[in-house]
Specification:
By secondary structure, the protein is α/β, with parallel strands linked by helices. The protein has one domain: Nucleoside Triphosphate Pyrophosphohydrolase. It is globular.
């Protein structure tokens, strides 16, 4: 089975909000499944997860950051693409804190521009009361733990 490695940022502002993209997976899934997802992307050959995350945050949001921590959440999930082929998504999530909520979309790839439908800073309360579809169930609990500084000491499966 093909494995797709992905580095993702749980991007938290000083206003205690998390940044998410509304992304349409048109190249992966029939009818282009749309979800709110974290910034990040696929690990290229020879690249570390941390280097991937730095590159992706610059491409997607214009942020130049240092990754100062290890990943704290992980997910391994099997998906089936629109051709009926299964692949394993091996995802690592890093907490990245920023002082403001300024993002710039001008460095996005064509695929990102085409499939990104919106970007939004979400509060915990907005996530808890939303009917939107998020990349993972229990996002509100993950954000609540981060905001209360209840960070896992070793990577936790989500």
């Amino acid at each position: 089975m093909k494995v797709r490695e992905r580095a993702s940022a749980l991007l938290i502002s000083s206003n205690n909000r998390i940044f998410l993209f509304k992304f349409k997976f048109s190249s992966m899934f029939e009818n282009g499944k749309t979800l709110w997802i974290t910034p990040g992307g696929g690990v290229k050959e020879g690249e570390t997860y941390e280097a991937t995350l730095r590159r992706e945050l610059y491409e997607e949001l214009g942020l130049e950051i240092l990754i100062e921590s290890k990943y704290v959440y992980a997910r391994k999930k099997v998906f089936t693409d629109k051709k009926g082929i299964e692949f394993l998504s091996d995802e690592r999530y890093f907490i990245v804190k920023v002082n403001n909520e300024i993002v710039i979309y001008e460095n996005m790839t064509n695929n990102e521009k085409e499939n990104t439908k919106a970007g939004k800073w979400w509060s915990l309360e907005e996530i808890q009361s939303s009917n939107e579809k998020f990349f993972v169930d229990g996002l509100d609990k993950i954000l609540e733990n981060i905001l209360s500084n209840n960070i896992p000491s070793s990577p936790q499966e989500i």
